[in-house]
């Protein structure tokens, strides 16, 4: 496994945890200048909706999708 893939997996896991914990600032930092695939974005949006955190939902909605 390459370092880039390991970093990507670790970043995604940290993002999941931050969303689940409602840590808006951490989510903002982890999403900085990033894009993601539609499936990842959809999953994270569903997770954020479970927590009903409108600020995190907005952050995720603003993330560009990679093709």
* Uncertain segments: none
Mean pLDDT: 89
Return Rg in Å: 11 Å
Shape field: globular
State the helicity in percent bands. over 70%
| Helical segment count | 4
Counting helices, strands and paired strands, the structural category is: mainly alpha
Q: Name the beta content range.
A: under 5%
CA distance, first residue to last residue: 23 Å
Number of strands: 0
Largest beta sheet, briefly? none
Order of helices and strands: HHHH
Quaternary state, please?
single chain
Protein name: Orphan protein
Mind sketching the topology for me?
Layout: H1 3-20, H2 24-31, H3 38-51, H4 54-61
Helix pairs in contact: 1-2, 1-3, 2-4, 3-4
Please describe what this structure looks like:
The chain is an all-alpha fold and about 70 residues long. The chain contains 4 helices and no strands. The longest helix has 18 residues, at about 5-20. The mean pLDDT is about 90. This is Orphan protein.
